[in-house]
Amino acid sequence: MKKDGWSAEEIFSSPNSLTYNDLIILPGYIDFAPADVDLDTRLTRNLSIKRPFVSSPMDTVTEGRMAIAMALNGGIGIIHSNNTPDEQAEEVRKVKRYENGFITDPICLSPENTISDILNIKAQYGFSGIPITENGKMGSKLVGIVTNRDIDFEKDPSKKLKEVMTKDLLTAHKNISLSEANDVLRESKKGKLPIVDDKGSLVSLMSRNDLLKNREFPNASKDKNKQLLVGASISTHTESYERLDLLVKAGVNVIVIDSAQGNSLYQVEMIKYIKSKYPEIDIIAGNVVTSEQALNLIKAGADALRVGMGPGSICTTQVTMACGRSQGTAVFHVSREARKHGIPVIADGGISSTGHIAKALALGASCGMMGGLFAGTLEAPGEYYYENGMRLKKYRGMASPEAMQRGGAKRYFAEDTKIKVAQGVSGAVLDKGSIMDYLPYLTQGLRHSFQDIGVKTIKDLHEKLYSNDLRFEVRSVAAQIEGNVHDLYSYAEPKYK
Known about the structure:
- The protein is α/β, with parallel strands linked by helices.
- Helix content is about 35%, strand content about 15%.
- The protein is built from 18 helices and 20 strands.
- The strands form six sheets. Strands 4-5-11-12-13-14-15-16 form an eight-stranded parallel β-barrel, surrounded by seven helices. A three-stranded mixed sheet has the order 8-9-10.
- Helix 2 (about 65-70) packs parallel to helix 3 (about 85-100), helix 3 packs parallel to helix 9 and helix 11 (about 290-300) packs across helix 13 (about 325-340).
- The radius of gyration is 24 Å and the shape is globular.
């Protein structure tokens, strides 16, 4: 019997350039439950993660807080480089120190702050155990702590913290070991343990929640030292030499060379430089969209490839530069070439739903890199604001005028030019809540997708792709409309897709 549909090889041999919405995967046979799906995957030649999720190195998407959340949930975050080398290295250190148990940059307040400040922190971050220092900053003398028990029955939000804070504190000296500090927390049954120096100044904090971390996040992405995995981006410019040294010293696990068009002499030279100086550091090179581009970077020593040129929701490269490729076609062709050399591929851009992640994996990618999908979450950089009654966060392309002015132009070979041509825009996205809720949702969605396709692992999916057993069809515009919500007077948009 002739199989329904077409193989990816047949579909992508046509002159048409296709993206995720143009395709549908035909279902397979179900003989297992979603819980049986294993989403372990390769990030690079030498690094594996438990979930195929990577957060993009954009200054409105990934800094330390996002990278921590990504790693705890089995993915990885890539710290952006639209900052100083010292600032970027510090964000990496935050991630590497986090699993050590000591919080080195806790939110602090002063005795002159009010209960309303505590309530605002609780509303935004979900916790209220706040150390109180003389000037409200780290490194200042610790004078108290405020927890829920101190303010639960206080009716006046304008009351100053010096009137309600707990002053009789259990503290530990900065030379205490992690295991010793854990023992103190267990025995004291307190929620927080401030760590102070000889002068009584706050240097870090331990939380009881950290003791539960390993139990709560069994799929966390960790290195051989049991610290969370983290990546960071650099450009191909000479300033990246200093940046690279600081990142390696901070403990970075993987470097992303961040170029909109990665097939360049500059990137090849940067790959060779990194490999000669830090051979233990894996390199994600790109961005590329063709087999020829991919091969050049693989020969230079790349350990993974980042695929995508212009598919992002805030990117205008394809319109402005008349250059790029539709993302489905790009992922398939680059993945097919990279597979010959044992190199994983990361599909970067154009992902706005769980289904898009599944399609990227089905076309040969090992991971999906998301920017817009994660922008607007609690862990993304930036503050929430309201517009027309909607709670929003800023989200901008690294080639938007705003980001290029700050430094993003270096990934577009435009840092020193007087006239800068924007290849992206600045905008806003709706509040999506916490990434800690979003990633488990994406994980479960992928498991159901794999069940419908009839595969239990990403490796099985790829084997089915390259044996031509995975079948696709190209959808017409009418079919795409039919496959989404339609013909309703109104409906409630789901929080997640």
